[in-house]
Amino acid sequence: MGLxxxxxxxKNPAGLLIFDISDGKYREHKDAGLAGxxxxxxxxxxxxxSGAIGHTRYLTSxxxxxxxxxxxxxxxxxxxxxxIAAVHNSQFTNQYEMKKLLEKKGRYIKTGGDPEPFLKLFxxxxxxxxxxxxxxxxxxxxxxxxxxxxxxxxxxVILLIAKGRNVKLVGFAGRKKIRPLVYGRKGESWCIxxxxxxxxxxxxxxxxxxxxxxxxIINRKGKIKKIKIGGDGNAFCMFEWTYFSRPDSVIDDVGVxxxxxxxxxxxxxxxxxxxxxxxxxxxxxxxxxxxxxxxTGIQPVxxxxxxxxxxxxxxxxxxxxxxxxxxxxxxxxxxxxxxxVALIDDSIVRGETMKRNVELLRKAxxxxxxxxxxxxxxxxPCYYGIDMATPEQFIARHKDEEQIARYIKADSLKHPxxxxxxxxxxxPKKELCLGCLTGHYPTNVSKLQKKQGxxxxxxx
Length: 460
Hints:
single chain; 2 domains; Rossmann fold
């Protein structure tokens, strides 16, 4: 579920489970590292079967240390009432309540990951509906309806359900559709994934997004069913378009690349400073800079060289961020010296990384540095699977743009407004999750806020 597209010093988990109808057995492999490292040619020879389910991204819960990472890596699976393997995107906001419910029943929770209680509760629901040991689509549909009543969050889920020669792939989202989920076809083979770029890379033709009110069931013969199960509407995560998804992905018919370019154009149209050079932060600022350049007529220059072996900063522990930022970027002085620079990036969270980038440009001889950010100000944590800062660490929660500019030592700073963002995405505001920008969330996150110590007043 998803592509591994960033390399970090803390290696992220990747896992794959396959079921083979020829012998009725499943095989799995999990490890820390990029997908290409974890699943080499020799390993893939062993992992062959009739259906497969995989996952790769950083953990949203559970430990990241070497001893625990394999245990907490997805997919998770149970063997009763049949083989059920699960991967998910986002986070279950009532995961602690789910764990308590299982513990009261005497069920042992062995991992720190939130998919385990979800999976075990789903297995219980499925078992309630099974008659004569046969697993029908109607049983799965009823179990999905039941589990959506007891789980909260912005999750999207893929299940592999197998027994004997009966193998089914199932995809659905929470009652509020926050995280993407899509499916595609290649001949008689189907694939459900977290973004369309996965389908493209694997050679599948995109068919559709899984809607908030439906469940997708695909059997081993390639027959697909779409069943309406009710829902509470869309609350698409704006961060998927502005940062998290690959630029070549499309979410509910809106291209990620297009949104970022449109936001760049909005920045360019609002520019009131004399700019000589447009410098994007690699690679997060490139698409915004492209749109900015189209409007201002100033072609972006690749003036900050990125060390390709260092990944995203916001998911790193504070001590490690401090060490890594010293070697992440290096300026190309000939593109900067004596110029008034528009430094373009997608976001500012804590401000430390941007402060370092401004300093790099000044040392390289920039006359002025004007920071232009592609998304509105972040002021609140995400509770739907993106590991963002705790409230006190959001610099925009405590400072206005002028104050932030002084802190990062920039000559000026500008963000687009929330209305600009909504316009660039092209979806009704009520269909977007803007929680990290406003402190108002589309589902109830109060229990998770309390547990994580992140409860805060809504940002006005």
